[in-house]
Amino acid sequence: MWIVNKVMYGLITLIFVYFLTGFLQQFAFGSIPSEPLLDALHSTGGKVKEVSINGWGQLPDGNFTAEQLSGMAGSAMSQLGLNKDDYTISQTEDARRLCVRAEAVQDELHAVILVQTLKAAQSEAAKGYVVVNIELNNSNNRDLINWQQQLKNIIKEFGCLPHINTCLTGWLDGKLLKEEWGIRLENAFQAAKATTVDRIQYTDFASYTGYSPVIADYVQYGNKKVNVNIAMRYSPHDNRTYIIVGSPVITREY
Q1: Residue 83 — φ and ψ, nearest 5°?
Q2: Which residues pair with 58 in a beta bridge?
Q3: Where are the domains of the chain?
Q4: Which helix (H) or strand (E) holds 230?
Q5: CB atoms within 10 A of CB 163
Q6: With 90 as the cut, is the pLDDT of residue 115 above it?
Q7: Which pairs from 218-224 meet CB under 8 Å and 24+ separation?
Q8: What span, in angstroms and rounded, lies between the C-alpha atoms of 254 and 117?
Q9: For residue 30, is pLDDT > 60?
Q10: At a CB cut-off of 8 Å and minimum separation 6, what does 197 contact?
Q11: Is the pLDDT score of 120 beyond 60?
Q12: 3-state DSSP assignment of residue 239
């Protein structure tokens, strides 16, 4: 587990830069477009079991009341197709922060909306942020692209520049042979049309990062662009090899 934590620590700078600073493909006549992250995971032989899409944006203004923040959270839930009976709203406040959280838990969807204002300190202006997180049990190409665009639209609706991060999780039954790890990860990068920037591999764990020109968003890693992060981990507990595909980077524990 310390190996996983070490890798996560190594990526935290990338995640932090990304979160402080039209991927949607057009198609006609009902054709399903290629989605590089799904293509990457499928090329390993795994199937998508979980999808996590996280979006955020900085609001143009940071001066809001709790009632206004609640209204914004409810509006975002409505745009996700959820009504008031489908979610709960809670509020937290301290000397520096006022936050409203809306959460919906359904069989195949877990959605969380956070709308918050960081109160002004001395000469600083108040800042506001909106965060939209969804988790799905599975997804196909069209579903994933639609959800990504839906999060972008919600964040844009509040006058924000949207930042989107996507993570897909799947698994293979059993443990791979030593030589299979590199082969499957290379296949995944080829499927995403990505080149490798960095590789980390230990016993029962491997993580590759790289860049794909077909994915619009990226973070800067030194003097290189990064927008594809693929990791594999064997778990003896359930005898599975887990595959996690993230863009621009993996932002969940693995």
Answers
A1: -100, 180
A2: 129
A3: 2-53+164-247
A4: strand 228-235
A5: 20
A6: yes
A7: 218/248, 219/14, 219/15, 219/17, 219/18, 219/248, 219/249, 220/17, 221/14, 221/197, 224/197
A8: 31
A9: no
A10: 209, 210, 211, 221, 224, 226
A11: yes
A12: coil
Alpha helices in the chain (DSSP H): 2-20, 36-43, 66-79, 141-157, 178-191
pLDDT higher than 80, residue 28:
no
C-alpha torsion sign, points 181, 187, 188, 190: positive
Q: What token pair was written down for 154?
A: 């919600």
Encoding tokens for residue 172?
């293979």
Contact 69, 116 (CB under 8 A): yes
- The pTM score is 0.82
| HSE toward the beta carbon, residue 72, CA cutoff 13 A | 29
Whole-angstrom distance, CA of residue 254 vs CA of residue 251: 9
DSSP-assigned letter for residue 66:
H
